[in-house]
């Protein structure tokens, strides 16, 4: 049972089996109006892994369950196009699968709103309008832009869309007048740019937009099975959907303390990625027992990893059950996203009406 307390995503009520009727939803909507709005998004580039779960998703869930926030989480499929424009065949399936990962992790459609960026056309309109007031120099000096362009040399990222990525992101965020944007450190420059764009809009036209705060959470630094940062592109990730023998094989292949070559060598748990995972998935007694056993070479890495594999399998059980549920009920996923699209669309429409008025670009006669 110890594992329960250590995986924040599991502290969550069981799946809503029946979707709530309109009548039950009304009070939730009213309460929502008084809460601070949170917005974040992810590009649908494939399956989410344990790094995503203990990083972004656990933060999203904590904000959702905090009680003071109205959370909007969306699939940034237009953003996925900025780098994957030449291979779009999987974007749609990835979008649905990503929402399944979100819901399996414990995000809850009764508490939060989930939507798909490309269904809310106002994002494109606000992007155009913001692009008019965004100085090129702000985009060209963006460190994420420079880094990604250098890293992804196999893709031609010298496109207008890729340069404009943060402008679209600014549109996503200020559309919902978000108070807070939960992101990882890599996204801080984008949120900073959003703040500058919002200030510029407010200065030039009308004070419409609150200046959003980036919300950084402390996240455990989890490495992939090869000891590098866990990432889909490094092919070293343990996916949220991995289970059974696949999961076991990955855990057994994990990189440990590099100085521990033989079982008789004493290990250094504080430098071992397997130990870090024990901290998240194993009972506190187990974690306390493993550290000295590793240091005195009383436990071997194989046994240590087998225990970890079992702990992860147990800790992920609820998530896997939810995943199975949604895989066999695609109509529920569709309804959840449709509901979210409607809710997000209402806000987006209201914001755009204000923006057009402020910029004198509406012609409703
Ligand atoms: N750029 C973000 C990422 O790659 C995704 C994103 C798009 C986003 N729009 C956003 C995140 C708005 C937060 C808010 O992770
Ligand atoms: Fe890591 Fe466990 Fe091996 Fe120690 S015994 S080095 S904690 S895998």
Structure notes:
This protein has 365 residues and is mainly α. The longest helix is centred in the last third of the chain and has 30 residues, at 330-359. It contains 17 helices and 5 strands. Helix 6 crosses helix 10 (165-175), helix 10 (165-175) packs across helix 11 (188-204) and helix 12 runs antiparallel to helix 15. Residues 256-257, 260, 267, 269, 272, 274-275, 290, 294, 299, 301, 304-305 line the site of iron/sulfur cluster (SF4). Residues 256-257, 260, 267, 269, 272, 274-275, 290, 294, 299, 301, 304-305 line the site of iron/sulfur cluster.
Strand arrangement within the widest β-sheet reads: 1-2-3
Integer average pLDDT: 90
What is the CA-CA span between the terminal residues?
Answer: 65 Å
Question: What kind of sheet is the major sheet?
Answer: 3 strands, parallel
CATH topology of the largest domain: Rossmann fold
SSE series: HHEHEHHEHHHHHEHEHHHHHH
Uncertain stretches of 5 or more adjacent residues? 1-26
CATH architecture of the largest domain: 3-Layer(aba) Sandwich
- Count structural domains: 2
* Backbone shape: elongated
- Tally of strands: 5
Which small-molecule ligands are present, each listed once? Answer: tryptophan, iron/sulfur cluster
Query: Level of helix content?
Result: 55-70%
| C-alpha-based Rg, rounded | 22 Å
CATH superfamily of the largest domain: HUPs
